[in-house]
Write the structure tokens for this entry.
Amino acid sequence: MSYDPWAQTQPTHANRPAPPVNRGQYPVPRQSRPAKRRTGCGCGCGPFFGGMALALAFVLVVYLLAPFRTNLLILGIDYTPVENVVGRSDTIIMMTVLPLEPYVGALSVPRDLWVQIPGIGENRINTAHFFAEGQQAGAGPAASMATIENNFGVRMDHFVRIRFDGVRSIVNAMGGVDIELEKPMAGYPAGKHHLTGRKALAFARNRSGSDDFFRMEQGSLLIRAILRQLMQPRMWPRLPLVLATALGQIDTDVPLWQWPRLGLAVLRAGPDGIDYRTVDRNMVTPFTTSQGASVLLPDWSRINPVLAEMFGE
């Protein structure tokens, strides 16, 4: 029997040792996971832009709702030649806007109110614009604002001036205006009426069988009717034409950045939420001047409490 030297060193299949257990010496394939979707640009600027958006939103809210008051003087100028506006301000409305509340107040002033006009002396309040504009083109609004401030003690920040012809054009651009009367007024019976631009202007200016106080009431009804109609969805397709017409008819020193702020306050208040008042018969005393002019003397003891309520003065 021959001797095999390998017989002692080569294990048979039966007694061959099991392969060593993997203790981490060899890499084990792992189950693949879906890759995470990356958001943003990967530079870490997401929080920066998020903060900027919040800051801009805060600035926008402060801008639109800041609790500082803006006072406007609305002037409706009588018929004048196209080339100038040397006319009397037969419509005078002191307006105040507090966007935060929102509060929109409008105080209509009689055109025959007898007041002290700076540089002129005593005269009807509606002549302040006429005299100043006659001396220097464009000076009428500033003279009217100064007259209001000196007599009423209310600061006027800006003015809005419109010719009476402009009202007619704006109403025509709207396709007319619907107005509802609770009582007969300006020759119309109680009920609902559709007015063209010409009829709307005649309605606001009508004084037949009445006086200037009725005319101011008619003017306030027309303003409310116009605002109410402009807010109706059926009017929205006409808004570009109405806006273009208004911009061509209105003269103002209100800065462009103020319009969204003031406009939002008016929209939030709504036409029925505007605090519209007049210097009425109880606040004046009829008077005849030495030249025979019929005017109205202001009773400041009755007017001042209204100013305090509306303008904080």
Summary: The chain has a mean pLDDT of 84. DSSP finds nine helices and twelve strands in the chain.
